Amino acid sequence: MALPPTPPSSNPNSPTSPTTTTSEGDAVINFDADIEKQNYNNEKLTDFNKSAPRENGSPDCAESPPKYSLHRRISEYVRIDDHPKGYPQLAAFVNSDPNFLMCRRFGFLHSRVLLYRQDELVQLEKELVDLDDEDAELNPKALISREIDDRRQDAPRKALIHDIDEKLKQYDELVLRCQAFTALQRPLTRNYNSFANWMNNKKPLSRSESKFVTHDEDFIALADGQEGGWFDCFVEDFLKVLPCRLSRFLFTSETERRKTDDAYVHLYSKKRLDTLVRLVITLLAVALLMAPVVVLFSVEEHGGIKIGVILLFTFFFSAALSVFTKAKRHEVFAATAA
């Protein structure tokens, strides 16, 4: 349904222009005219609504507006299933959990561009060295004074240095970008498989634009991995063994439960899951510290057995520290020695 067009300004009953011009040419905003125009449009809109057809022949029932305005759709979209199939739904799925924040690194393309820029600098370096060698024989003063060198016709060294500087800026920026991408970790196999399985099952994109998923070796995780990422995955898999209602009640918040109705997508509260993981690791650490003490108190003789118990639990403690945390080698060594 379209609104009737606004009458042209030639109509004597139409509102005047909201701006007028003085004799000096200065524009002046006419607020009264603006208000008059607004009132005129409101009256026309009211007359149009009165003459619009009614549903079921009722004169008091006007046609209902669209269910969602653009602003309301954007502000109320929370569930993955509510987004249209395609890139909107894929973006909602990726945004639903930090584990799904992954993308391609394009390592091959980065390497190609890096090698290309490197060869450009190699060529410019050769030109600069050749120019230095030529001036060393024909014009040595150009090598000991920049001012003399710049006064030469066309200033070849100055132009060459400028080109080298521009290429170095591009090269340095590319090197830093490659370094930043290299520092990012690959996603856990479990997280990548979850992402790929969702793509294969839902098929939100066309076949040609879905092929990026097949480059599993080129994917990087944008979210910082937790200290024991694999252990978190193990805990999530263990939660699936529990009754569905119990696990969802204990480890899924209302926000996660509302995001999707897909029975194959399980979204857990990161805060609650992290609390459980920390509790398990704390109990494990206490057990590794207290178990050898209990064993040593129970063994009265055989010094060799006591030494073996100490070595065994020291090894277990060091292994647990390496596996369940992101401790560096010197940190593991220091903690074990303590």
Helix content: 55-70%
What is the mean predicted local confidence, pLDDT?
74
Q: How big a fraction of the residues is strand? A: under 5%
Please give the oligomerization state of what you see: single chain
Number of helices: 14
Distance between the termini: 79 Å
Could you tell me the radius of gyration in angstroms? Answer: 36 Å
User: How many β-strands, per DSSP?
Assistant: 4
Helix and strand run = EEHHHEHHHHHEHHHHHH
Main sheet summary:
2 strands, antiparallel
Which structural class do you get from the secondary structure elements? mainly alpha
| Shape verdict | flat
Please mark out the parts with pLDDT under 50 across 5 or more consecutive residues, or reply none. Answer: 1-72
Major sheet: arrangement of strands? 1-2
